[in-house]
Amino acid sequence: GHCTNKTLYLAAPLNHIVLMTYCIQYFTSPVTRGITDVMTLHTHANHQTATPVVPVSALPMRAAKSLINAKGIPGPLTLRWLMSFLLLLPVLFGYSQCPASNKEIVAYCVNPKKQQLQFFNRDDNGKAFKSFSRLNDWLNSRGKKLAFATNGGMYQHDNSPVGLYVENGKTKKKLSHAKGGGNFGWKPNGVFYITTDNKAQIVTTEQFAMKANIKYATQSGPMLLINGKMHAGFAKNSKHANTRNGVGILPDGRILFAMSKNDITFYAFAQYFQDAGCKNALYFDGAVSRTYLPAQKQLDDGGDFGVIIAEVVSKK
User: Fold this and answer.
1) C-alpha angle 184-294-114 in degrees, rounded to nearest 5
2) Residue 280's pLDDT is what?
3) Before 188, cis peptide (omega within 30)?
4) pLDDT > 70: what percent of the chain?
5) Mean pLDDT of the residues in the chain
6) Distance between CA atoms of 214 and 217, rounded to whole angstroms?
7) Which positions ≥6 away from 296 have C-beta within 8 Å?
8) Cα dist. 54→9, 37, 39, 62, 138 in Å?
9) Following DSSP, what letter does each residue of the chain receive, concatenated?
10) Cα separation values, 266 from 109, 116, 131, 205, Å
């Protein structure tokens, strides 16, 4: 039929939408499938082939007639067609749903185009912020406050970042290619960065190239997802579980931050981002991880961190 014909060409966007809706109906509803078969196919008495009765160009008109009868009263398929169309909207416009927090994971999505996301490590005097509470006090004195905060990568004893760190376009610590033990050195590790036009990206360390338009960046490891595939070193039956936090990029460009409430394996944590639709995701840290998110009653404002990633809003 129309849904499986590879030579079918639709020039008008409306035809494309109607056809996609039509195909969902065809493959998901036995009742509708029977109706559409009758609508679209006619077997000639003298031929062994079935030919389309309804040309593609007429689909929008026939679709309208199936929804509203001659008296202008909605037909029985109206709700089904409407629901199918609504389900198509995320696909048509590239929208992805932010997963809600649950009993296992604290989740928060940030649209970098609309929300003010910043990276912090030290104040104007060079003193490490360390905790969410100290950073919040510093922001309060400037008429701002935290709407969200999480630790953003591994750090040294003096709270300086282990790897690359860029803040407000200035490179505070250079990219590290060091190989070694620990999660940071578990290759491939990677970089989470935001550009001056507020676009977020996650790439492997090997793929990263420092450019003038990078506003914020933090390096950590290991990568959880690389181009949609899970890190090859993660084992499904692993017994190594811990509290973990990390970041992923959703298909629509929003940033997904997640932290486990309980111990979780790398495999399960990576799968969480994969199930959410992320193609690339990066691990931040383990047992020290915390999330400050008042809107979800996550009020732990302590910590002893290196890089802090925060959504900053007006104090008013």
Assistant:
1) 75
2) 98
3) yes
4) 70
5) 82
6) 7
7) 101, 106, 108
8) 15, 10, 7, 8, 68
9) -TTT-TT----SHHHHHHHHHHHHHHHH-HHHHHHHHHHHEEE-TT-SSEEESS-GGGHHHHHHHHHB-TTS-B-TTHHHHHHHHHHHHHHHHT--PPPPP-SSEEEEEE-TTTS-EEEESB-TTS-B--SHHHHHHHHHTTTEEEEEEEE-S-B-TTS-BSS-EEETTEEEE-------STTTTSSS-EEEEEETT--EEEEETTT----TTEEEEEEES-EEEETTEE-TT--TT---EE--EEEEE-TTS-EEEEEESS-EEHHHHHHHHHHTT-S-EEEEESTT--EEEGGGTEE------S-EEEEEEE--
10) 21, 29, 25, 19
pLDDT at 237 over 90: yes
- Which two tokens mark 36? 């559409």
Which pLDDT does position 316 carry in this prediction?
79
For the full predicted model, state whether its pTM sits above 0.85.
Answer: no
Q: Which residue has the tokens 């992923």?
A: 248
Distance CA 148, CA 8 (A): 49
Whole-angstrom distance, CA of residue 162 vs CA of residue 176: 8
Question: Tokens 């910590």 correspond to what residue?
Answer: 303
181 versus 229: the higher-pLDDT residue is: 229
23-41 pLDDT per residue, tens = 445 444 544 444 344 333 3
Residue 246 contacts residue 274 (beta carbons within 8 Å)? no
Q: 39-94 pLDDT, tens per residue?
A: 333 334 444 444 444 454 455 555 555 555 555 655 655 556 566 555 555 444 44
Neighbours of 167 (CB within 10 A): 19
In this structure, are residues 31 and 79 in contact, taking their beta carbons and an 8 Å threshold?
A: no
Show Cβ contacts of residue 287 under 8 Å, excluding neighbours closer than 6 positions. 242, 243
Q: Which tokens go with 66? A: 């199936």
- Neighbour count for residue 106 (Cβ, 10 Å): 19
**Whether the Cβ atoms of residue 259 and residue 105 lie closer than 8 Å to each other:** yes
